[in-house]
Amino acid sequence: MIISTLMDDKKKEGSPLINEHGLSFHIHKEEYNILFDMGASEYFAYNAQKMGIDLNNIDLAVISHGHYDHGGGLKTFFKENKNSEVYLKPLGKYYRINDPLSPQEINLDIDVLEKNSLRLKYIRENREVLPGIHLISSIIQKYDSRQDNNGLYKMKNGKMVRDDFDHELLMILEEKDKIIIISGCSHQGILNMIETACSLFPQKHIKAIIGGFHLIYPTEFSQKNDYSTHIKKIGEKIAEYPVEMIYTGHCTSEKSYNILKEVLKDRLNYAYTGTVIYL
Ligand SMILES: [Fe+2]
Ligand SMILES: [Fe+2]
């Protein structure tokens, strides 16, 4: 299996690719090609072309959740690919509120969704969409991830409420004796994602976890020490699971990454734009 990072917030110095705040992975196996997320704009397609990946060959596309930095490239995807369906959970309107007077809309373009509704497949329960490819709709809530999602809201019955990320899904690629977990932002908590995968596949070890962990370091000085401890604990908990390799980036901030790295050492890697992972 070859997993190519078509988009991440960062790229390596000198890379000819374009980076933006967004995420996109291309997954190639003999039997299929999958696109998991599409970045925030058309740039994921530019990078795909530079990396020799033909988007028209995608058999299945997935949008991990309803934030623009994961599905912003949808319009471009429909232009480049004429066959593949796009799997996602039902989406709504989502906001980031830094200043209560000006909430920032961070959802997908509703127009693009409506115009291409025939190619959208909504996931409402866990489903094996192709042999060995599982889209997981219900995530076990064992660990509290609320403090990692401060400032993120959704519209519910005309009111803005804290987002519970019921629009988020997880992808698990099942192999003979192992699984690979692919997550967009892990808003519901990376530990809950791992816990869910382990409970669904208790006999299999985790070959790799790939995705953003939404561990954004808070700017308020008073919270900093507490937050470092919080991240360290997450790293220690991850280490308790049967996980071989981890590739993160995107919404795992640099500070959080460095704290996790101290705990997880060689098992943890950064998935820059252009990173190719052979599994
Ligand atoms: Fe994100
Ligand atoms: Fe997100």
Automatic annotation (TrEMBL):
Q: Which GO terms describe its molecular function?
A: transferase activity
Which residue numbers delimit the Metallo-beta-lactamase domain?
25-98
Top-rank taxon, per record = Archaea
- InterPro entries this protein is in? DHPS-like_MBL-fold, Metallo-B-lactamas, Metallo-beta-lactamase_dom, RibonucZ/Hydroxyglut_hydro
Q: Which Pfam families match?
A: Lactamase_B
Its name, as the record gives it, is: MBL fold metallo-hydrolase
